[in-house]
From TrEMBL:
It holds the Pfam family Sulfate_transp. It comes from the Eukaryota. The keyword Transmembrane helix applies. InterPro entries: SLC26A/SulP_dom (IPR011547), SLC26A/SulP_fam (IPR001902). The chain crosses the membrane at residues 20-37, 58-82, 94-111. Keywords: Membrane, Transmembrane, Transmembrane helix. One of its GO terms (biological process) is transmembrane transport. It is a multi-pass membrane protein. Residues 1-159 form the SLC26A/SulP transporter domain. This is SLC26A/SulP transporter domain-containing protein. PANTHER family: SULFATE TRANSPORTER (PTHR11814). One of its GO terms (cellular component) is membrane.
Length: 161
């Protein structure tokens, strides 16, 4: 497969990367809008997901949307303004993602966003490493297609450069 991937054009690799980015965006947009959508399997799952987003768009949680917009704006501002200036002073990157995560966690805890604004939270995170177990076999049909697609895209992108 490695020798065949040399023949893939940059346009094809770019298309694979764009398609993967579109899938990631589709999976994340429901969380940015604060929607609870059904998960689909199969070749038209993106279309079904966008259909459900359009149906539920007016039930989106405005507080989640504002927090998402602020978070994205802060990270983009950091990447465009702060990070280039900070890079001239030191080689250590500015820890904006850690700061945003810490601030969001503190604000959510202090102002009880979970109950006041019906926001989903992670909840209690167990400490330590879990004991290794074999994954349930009944999950295989649900993930095998996605795994194969990710494998082909990752392999193609890594070997074509």
């Amino acid at each position: 497969m490695g020798s065949y991937s040399v023949f893939l054009s940059d346009m094809m690799v770019s298309g694979f990367s764009t398609g993967a980015a579109f899938h990631v965006f589709t999976l994340q947009i429901q969380h940015i809008l604060g929607l609870n959508l059904k998960s689909y399997d199969g070749p038209l799952k993106l279309m079904y997901t966008y259909r459900d987003i359009n149906k539920q768009l007016f039930t989106a949680n405005p507080v989640v949307m504002v927090i998402s917009a602020i978070t994205i704006s802060v990270i983009v501002f950091n990447n465009l303004i702060i990070e280039p200036w900070f890079h001239t002073k030191t080689r250590v990157p500015f820890p904006i993602k850690f700061i945003v995560l810490t601030a969001g966690t503190l604000l959510s805890y202090l102002f009880n966003f979970h109950h006041k604004y019906n926001m989903r939270i992670v909840g209690k995170i167990p400490t330590g490493l879990p004991t290794p177990t074999v994954p349930p076999i009944e999950l295989m049909p649900k993930i095998v297609t996605d795994c194969a697609i990710i494998c082909v895209v990752a392999f193609t992108v890594s070997f074509s450069k």
